[in-house]
Amino acid sequence: METLQAKDERARCTGDGPKNEGLRDHTIGFEEYEMMANCRWLGAVHSGQEGSRSVAGGSVKSMLRAIVVAWCLVTAAMLSKCGGGSSQPSIPQLTITTGSLPNGTVETPYHQPIQASGGVGPFSWSVTGALPHNLGLSNSATNSVTISGTPDTAAQATAFTVKVTDAANQSATQAYTVSILLEPDTLTLTPTTLSFAPQLIETVSGAQVETITNTGNSPVSINSIALSGTNAADYSQTNTCGSNLAAGENCPINVTVTPSQLGPSSAAITITDSTVGSPHSVSLNGVGLTPGPNATLSAGSLTFANQVIGTTSPAQSLTLSNYGTTTLAIVSIAATANFGETDTCSGSNLASGASCTINVTFTPIATGSVSGTLSATDNAPGSPQTVSLNGTGATSQYTLTGACFHNIKDTPNCQFTEDSAECPAGQRATTPGIVGCFFPHNASVDLSRSCSVKGTYGGSGYCATSFTGAAKSRAAASGSGLPTPSSDTKSKK
């Protein structure tokens, strides 16, 4: 049996509504009933059966038909739920649920999925911005895509955006930042330095072993093992390491030295590999010897800065070494006038490969250039061994400031200009004096050291000095106790 509500719904949709007297007993309203009645009337007019509602005149009839058609369309929209159909279900919103991606490592395979939810397939994926080098986005029509590859270049914070679009034209995006890190340093070298015992020149030493160990969990690529450094030609190496060192494995490098000259030699083994610490290196040290005793001084000459007469300079050091195969007997160490020395060598015996220290000072007794000699007397061939000594005696404690005090081209004025080449700061003045210009009036200079400056404001002059030898003085010197240049150089041009 049809329920009252179902009967009302059928009546609303078919137009078989009740008579006016039954309106209060049904759910359909009066306005809805009247609209449907008008629609039925329109149908009757269209079919030529309008009955008692007939309207004379074609134009009036057309106008009424248009009004009622519009009214019926509105009514149809309002009653669209009639007809028994169900509404279309909504499509779930499309989103990318993978919020971030991990960093990668150079030369290590990278494989990271990105997942989406919602939407309706098939899907299409794209990326905006550059992925890290050698990585790519896979082709996928599903709700999952993969970024994969083997990155070969280190990169910091590479930014890109992934977009997914579904069949209903919904889209979603997600921004990512990925760094590609260098492979961790898993290569260790033991020991870090190889030091060889003193060896006769042109003879081959015994081999020493350097061990390379891979402490990581993946293989390390070894690109090269080579010798480098000042005396690389004196050393040689052999190894069995190959191009890859497996995780947890090690390999030996056998090293020898054949000295080509007396004294110390140095070089290095350089290992180029795939770890972050590449290239790795190991220092190599050796000493070349000659048969019998030997006396070798570390320098052939020493030069001292200007020194006030009667005062002693800071010491400069020399090393006396025995690069012979037998003991060196040192008889004496001596320096000539104006120079002095203290040492740990005199009267001692130096074993093969041993050395001692000589400290030399300068105490001038007159102004101007001074030269001398340091001599070492011993039982080695070529005794005595000598070192040339040089210095300059000065009459004051004035030192150069590193500036040139010079006249300004085509003006009566002067100025200070930095000139460390001609006026090295800290050197003692040999002939301190005073020069003057229209402005500034006076300046303390070294009359024995001239200088010149190029440029628009250039000119010639003398190296500026300071009594304390500290920071450069721009103030005019007092002139007390200092000579002045002759009239032809007072304002040097």
Please give a structural write-up.
By secondary structure, the protein is mostly beta strands. It has 5 domains: 4-78, no CATH class; 95-181, Immunoglobulins (Immunoglobulin-like), CATH 2.60.40.10; 187-287, Immunoglobulin-like, CATH 2.60.40.10; 296-394, Immunoglobulin-like; 399-466, no CATH class. Helix content is 10%, strand content 41%. The chain contains 3 helices and 33 strands. The strands form 7 sheets. Strands 10, 11, 13, 15, 17 and 18 form a 6-stranded mixed sheet that branches. It is flat, with a radius of gyration of 51 Å. 28% of the residues are buried. Residues 1-15, 17-57, 79-86 and 469-493 have low confidence and may be disordered.
The total of helices stands at 3
Q: Please name the CATH topology of the largest domain.
A: Immunoglobulin-like
- β-strand amount: 35-45%
Name the overall outline: flat
- Structural class designation: mainly beta
Whole-number tally of structural domains: 5
Name of the CATH superfamily of the largest domain: Immunoglobulins
Largest sheet: 6 strands, mixed
Radius of gyration: 51 Å
Which residue ranges are poorly predicted, with pLDDT under 50 across at least 5 consecutive positions?
Answer: 1-15, 17-57, 79-86, 469-493
Output the CATH class name of the largest domain: Mainly Beta
Instruction: State the distance separating the first and last CA atoms.
Output: 132 Å
Task: Tell me the helix content.
Answer: 10-25%
Average pLDDT figure: 81
Number of strands: 33
Question: If classified by CATH, what would the architecture of the largest domain be?
Answer: Sandwich
